[in-house]
């Protein structure tokens, strides 16, 4: 099984080193090959997603991705900026299904902004469509405004769009996930859109409703995106699976992640139709703390576990990693982002080593 | 001074009745004229925004709006649904600037989902552009997908767009508001966009940066919308004024309102270039509790205060209402939505009467 290791920028290399330690400790037939991506790749070869990196990703069974982005690259033209590597990989590999769990680990409940009773035991899954919507819709660009009170003025524009088969396949992912999370039957899917305003959302809502006929055991509810942003704050535990488009999913998955109070713990998976996937922590590249050895590697380590489960068909190995992470938390080890009175503050490498030890 | 009173649906008529009591108690030369809107207007005359209602709004100095929407009307075709009245009024009156304060009133801090220290004293202002963006952009509709892997499939699409003058005028509103909130100089504006992905956002960011040259005393920061959704949860008090487009503003203003824990207290103003405005509570029509006399009228009463300040040039009268609301809260009066141990539970009318009494 071939795995492309793309560490990226900021804390990316540090957290990736720990995830690699953990993968090696599993003693599975994994072939790891590393390549630069993001700002690091731009610095080395003039492009955030060099051909060789893309080729490596294409032929791998799965990609383990660190994080990209650094203030150093903020002034580059957009097509050379680090985040173009993420968009490019999603598009090139057809990674249409982004799974983002928002889980509040029991020993970390206090770290949330929310009152403990609202987040204790939180375990929801955001399913975000990742290759469509306004992210890639054409036409887009600049033009003189074609009409309205400011006709002729300089205008920026983008196209939001979804086609029926795109909505169908992501809806299926969400309904299947609801079943899987609930012992094979049942569960709830909340489909989030803005159907009171957008044509794209009207199609979205129609198609999700149709696909639901194949999943009568799963409850389906529809919610407007503004209301979803509120309900996540008010009562996050009322959700089970949320399914939504690329743009709304970008916003809501980050809001949900932050609600848990420990975004340094949250992995994510982005899958294509062949089960190939890219796995990355939900947090960013945190250039402000890069190189200090204090970043939390657990989200990346848990992303490696998702990789084993979703792309490499080794749920047993995934569970071993997850158990090991639970154990180091139970032992009281904490990187600074999740530290609290009465626990033991450790650095990035010490945390990685502890997970390796717990695996044995 | 002519005021159009549009009560609407659900709890709209009940909360509006209390605001009207308060306005009458001011003994100002106000001429109030009422008209149906939303589902109530559809039921009476077949359209959510009848010609007569629109005409009344046009000739008024200000519109006081209750709320619209009810499950009864969910099956209507979109152009007849209650919320079309709001979109129609915004468009017809050119109400481009939506001001939504998110304030945590001291005695209600405990009602928030967030830990008290994160929201105590919260006072931020969201400035949302209200007549542009993907809400009204053309073209929009259904078509066979023009390209991509699913070319030819049924597709829904919308156009996001902003022109330079539209961004300029809303940016000015935000910078002016920052100064006003900070004693005439200074303050901070956070401009929220998705410039790493959207062309519309790139123009937005350029123009806001340009307009900022006229406000060197105000700090400007740019933030991606996904990050803004997180930072609002993590540290809402780090914001002062947020300025953003129609779609992102819809989501973030509701998220921010819910953070305060007392959305039943939050007014809003929607202004045009002539200072004419529509004023409405930030909460919805709550059909589930309509007719029970338990809805909180304070957001509507505080919307009337905003109306006096922004459209009727009577800041003195606005302050009187705001003081009266503070006083009834200090006296411990609470509608059920903000009730807690040790306070006195009152109904809609009793709350309105208490505000009137406190005015004297
Ligand atoms: C970097 C950016 C293009 C990206 C996105 O918006 O998808 C990021 O925010 C994410 O959610 O992975
Ligand atoms: C009802 C709907 C069209 C409206 C909007 O999205 O603008 C509402 O959510 C609001 O924020 O006033």
UniProtKB/TrEMBL annotation, chains A, B:
Residues 2-355 form the Isopropylmalate dehydrogenase-like domain. Pathway: Amino-acid biosynthesis; L-leucine biosynthesis; L-leucine from 3-methyl-2-oxobutanoate: step 3/4. Binds 1 Mg(2+) or Mn(2+) ion per subunit. SMART domains: Iso_dh. Its EC number is 1.1.1.85. Mg(2+) binds at residues 226, 250, 254. The record marks 135, 194 as: Important for catalysis. One of its GO terms (biological process) is L-leucine biosynthetic process. Keywords: Amino-acid biosynthesis, Branched-chain amino acid biosynthesis, Cytoplasm, Leucine biosynthesis, Magnesium, Manganese, Metal-binding, NAD, Oxidoreductase. NAD(+) binds at residues 284-296. Homodimer. Catalyzes the oxidation of 3-carboxy-2-hydroxy-4-methylpentanoate (3-isopropylmalate) to 3-carboxy-4-methyl-2-oxopentanoate. The product decarboxylates to 4-methyl-2 oxopentanoate. This is 3-isopropylmalate dehydrogenase. It comes from Tepidimonas charontis.
């Amino acid at each position: 099984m071939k795995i492309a290791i793309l560490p990226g920028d900021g804390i990316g290399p540090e957290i990736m080193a720990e995830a690699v330690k953990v993968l090696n400790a599993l003693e599975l037939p994994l072939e790891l090959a590393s390549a630069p991506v993001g700002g690091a790749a731009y610095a080395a070869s003039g492009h955030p997603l060099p051909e060789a990196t893309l080729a490596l990703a294409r032929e791998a069974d799965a990609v383990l991705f660190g994080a990209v982005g650094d203030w150093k690259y903020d002034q580059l033209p957009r097509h050379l900026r680090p985040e173009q590597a993420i968009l490019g990989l999603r598009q090139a590999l057809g990674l249409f299904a982004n799974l983002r769990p928002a889980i509040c680990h029991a020993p970390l409940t206090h770290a949330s902004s929310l009152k403990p009773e609202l987040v204790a035991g939180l375990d929801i899954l955001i399913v975000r469509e990742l290759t469509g919507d306004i992210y890639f819709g054409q036409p887009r660009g600049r033009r003189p405004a074609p009409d309205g009170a400011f006709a002729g003025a300089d205008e920026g524009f983008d196209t939001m769009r979804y086609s029926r088969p795109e909505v169908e396949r992501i809806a299926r992912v969400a309904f299947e996930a609801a079943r899987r999370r609930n012992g094979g039957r049942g569960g709830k899917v909340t489909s989030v859109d803005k159907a009171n305003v957008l044509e794209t959302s009207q199609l979205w809502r129609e198609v999700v409703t149709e696909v639901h006929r194949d999943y009568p055991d799963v409850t389906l509810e529809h919610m407007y995106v503004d209301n979803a942003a509120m309900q996540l704050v008010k009562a996050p535990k009322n959700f089970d699976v949320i399914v939504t488009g690329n743009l709304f999913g970008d916003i809501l998955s980050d809001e949900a992640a932050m609600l848990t109070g420990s975004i340094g713990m949250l992995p994510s998976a982005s899958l294509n139709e062949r089960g190939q996937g890219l796995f990355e922590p939900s947090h960013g590249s945190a250039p402000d703390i890069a190189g200090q050895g204090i970043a939390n590697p657990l989200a990346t380590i848990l992303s490696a576990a998702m990789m084993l489960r979703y792309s490499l068909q080794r749920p047993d190995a995934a569970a071993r990693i997850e158990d090991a992470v639970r154990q180091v938390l139970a032992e009281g080890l904490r990187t600074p982002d999740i530290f609290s009175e009465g626990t033991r503050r450790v650095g990035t490498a010490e945390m990685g080593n502890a997970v390796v030890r717990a695996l044995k």
